[in-house]
Structures are given as structure tokens and as C-alpha cells.
Design brief:
This protein is of the alpha+beta class and 178 residues long. 29% of the residues lie in helices and 14% in strands. It has a four-stranded antiparallel beta sheet with strand order 1-2-4-3. The longest helix has 20 residues. The structure holds iron/sulfur cluster (SF4).
Length: 178
């Protein structure tokens, strides 16, 4: 694997903060699935649980990769004013980067996006067959059981639960490369 070749591709994007990691750096836990299934307003969306394999299968899936990219994004926020446009632009860019890495020969490349799918103004899809952009649909890290808090803190990156007095949001995406 030629990391510098991929880093040249990343340099074409406005992504300044990223790190090469391995499956050993990633924390996967059953409780993450519980949170996806209960208490999240996105449950049942096309790229969300229960429409994904079991946590054990997801763990095995991540272990099939040796090299993974982790991206960190930081954004100023006001409580309750999450910027959909920011998230959508980020998704488009991440999908474009995934495609460029894939086309450079890394055929296993797969994006775990920062959050559940945000491509349409309003998601009316109840399952994969009713999704308007199946080709662009990617799960978020939590959907495959990744404990994002546990993973990024282990790697000394910032993350906090967002509260009313929060002013900064930290988001993370992963690209499974090879
Ligand atoms: S692409 Fe659109 S329809 Fe499909 S999951 Fe995303 S927001 Fe919903």
C-alpha cells in the first residue's frame, strides 16, 4: 500500500486533520448497537440498524482491513442549530474522496461517514429499496458498532457530549482502505 499516493489524493480536499490507524485502534462494542436501536430518531433508516449485520460480523468486517483513515472535523455550534448544509457538503466531499481512492486501485475502499445519511432534504426512505441514492448510501461508524468516543479518546483526539453550553462539535469519519 502506498500511503503517500493516497495522501496526495487527500491533499486535493479541504481535510487537514487525519490519521492512519489499524483495526487495533478501533473500539467496537455491543452497547453502541443498543443506542442505535433505542433513543435515536434515525433507527430503521436505510443505513442504520437494524439494517446492518450483527456487531460480531461488523467486528470481523473491520478486521478484514489493515489500513484505515480516520478524519477529524471540528465545527463551532450553537445548541439546536446543527448545520445540515455543512454536513451535506462534508458527505459529498467524503464520497468524492472515497471514489478517488477506489479509482486509484484500492478496490476495498469504503466510507463510514460522520453521521447517518443526510443527502436528501428530508429522508422518506423506510428501507433500502425506497432510498433515492442507493449508490451514495454509507453507514456511520456507530452503525457498524464503533464506539467513536472510546476510539478517538484512545488516539488523543477531542470529543465531548454536546450540551446546551457547548460551542464546538467534533465529528469523525473513517475510510476503510485496504
Ligand atoms: S440518500 Fe436520501 S433517501 Fe437515501 S437514506 Fe439518504 S437521505 Fe434517505
Amino acid at each position: 500500500m502506498n500511503q503517500s499516493e493516497i495522501e496526495k489524493i487527500i491533499a486535493q480536499f479541504p481535510f487537514k486533520e487525519y490519521q492512519w490507524i489499524t483495526p487495533d485502534d478501533i473500539v467496537i462494542a455491543q452497547w453502541v448497537r443498543l443506542k442505535c436501536l433505542y433513543g435515536c430518531g434515525e433507527t430503521g433508516r436505510p443505513a442504520c440498524p437494524p439494517n446492518l449485520p450483527s456487531i460480531e460480523s461488523c467486528r470481523e468486517l473491520i478486521r478484514e482491513y489493515k489500513t484505515i483513515l480516520m478524519f477529524h472535523f471540528q465545527k463551532e455550534v450553537k445548541y439546536g442549530e446543527y448545520s445540515k448544509k455543512w454536513a451535506k457538503d462534508l458527505t459529498r466531499n467524503m464520497l468524492d474522496l472515497e471514489k478517488k481512492i477506489f479509482l486509484s486501485g484500492y478496490y476495498k475502499t469504503f466510507l463510514l461517514n460522520t453521521s447517518s445519511c443526510n443527502l436528501c432534504k428530508e429522508c422518506k426512505a423506510e428501507n433500502k429499496t425506497s432510498c433515492k441514492h442507493l449508490d451514495l448510501l454509507r453507514p456511520c461508524p456507530e452503525a457498524v458498532g464503533i464506539d467513536v468516543f472510546g476510539t478517538v479518546r484512545k488516539l488523543n483526539y477531542p470529543i465531548e457530549v454536546l450540551r446546551e453550553d457547548s460551542s464546538v462539535m467534533n465529528r469523525y469519519a473513517f475510510i476503510l482502505v485496504e
